[in-house]
Amino acid sequence: MPPFLRRLAARLRPLPRRVRALNTSPPVAEPGVLTSRLSSRAVVRFAGPEAARFLNSLLTNDLLAAFAAAGSAAPQRYGPTPNAPARGPAGPAYAALLTPQGRFLYDLFLYRPAPRSQMLDRTGSAPQTGEREEGEPTEVLADVDAAEVDELLACFKRYRLRSKVEIDNVSKDFACWQRFGHDVEHTEPSTQEPEAQSIGWGQGSDHAAESAAQGNGHGWQWLKDPRLDCLGYRGIFPADTIPPLVESDKEADERNYQLWRIENGVAEGSTEIPKGEAIPLEYNFAGLNAISFEKGCYIGQELIARTHHRGVIRKRLMPMKFVDENGQELEQAVAPGSEVVDEASGKKIGTVNTALGSRGMGLLRLEEALKQNSSLCISGKSDVRVKVIKPDWWPAEWTQMVEQQSAAA
């Protein structure tokens, strides 16, 4: 076998028939880079000449601008959101589908296919031939909540009407993965994972080799998570292959990724973002690059725009730690749905919506949660204290007024 094909086969190794051993120990905030296959996420394909415009008319983000940055012939009307670079290979776009009343329904990571020049032919030894279609993409893959995939498909099909788009669940063919950890963050302009980006053969640009190094014949690769730099890299890969850069001792159970998100105050999916109830701005969607305030109409846009321009959001999703009276962390002491109260006044300030180990997230009133010397606990469990954490990535304006009022008091 030629050397190139041996290297290609080594990088695109198939999944063995037996279950691969994962790091399933209790999740801890350990250093280094970990990788998780996200069984909580499914993959849906939108295909057809109107796929991009169909999605753009429904979802909160400006997908036409995002896909234009990825190489579409459609003009880019607005600048990218803060975490998305203006040039280079574009990562996935993050967006949400809302109810007409502006409440959360589903979150989606949306990928457009790679250029044909970066896809391998059937032999795996050379790029495919042929020109890429001009204009908007005719196929979009969406990484969605697996628990809601059937309802999501039915919902989008109701909105389809006469649009020329086919909607299918392709989770049997594709899987979602995440690379995360203390050492994975970087702020370079490129959206590609640096280690994968650096792999190549020779001094020239070998697109076939690059595609092999980055994942598979469909051209998918590790790309920067569109929400925050600290969340690392995300990708969709064929279900029967292991993505590049995944080491057996660094492949971790998905709970490790969930804990990483909890510690950074980022919810994902309808289990953590109450379907039909959550107001996206209270769940920090504006800071996670999920909402465009310039694109125009989409479902639920009126409430989102009014709340944003009013500029007053009194409750937000915040990470928290559960400790005892001595400050020692308490494992498995709190269940989702528990109320967080001010111990002195007995006043409820919020609710825990996600709990894992000694960590959790909850929708809390900012004024009480950030008050200096406040003493918070779980309702009915005064021995379980709550330490609220303000994420480092939060914009200063989110808490500036509250902190000024607290200091004056």
TrEMBL record:
Protein name: CAF17 C-terminal domain-containing protein
Gene3D superfamilies: Probable tRNA modification gtpase trme, domain 1
Pfam families: Beta-barrel_CAF17_C
Subcellular location: Mitochondrion
GO biological processes: iron-sulfur cluster assembly
Transmembrane regions listed in the UniProt entry: none
Main subcellular location: mitochondrion
Domain CAF17 C-terminal: 314-395
Disordered: annotated segments: 118-139, 186-218
Keyword set, alphabetical order: Mitochondrion, Transit peptide
GO cellular component terms listed in the entry, alphabetical order: mitochondrial matrix
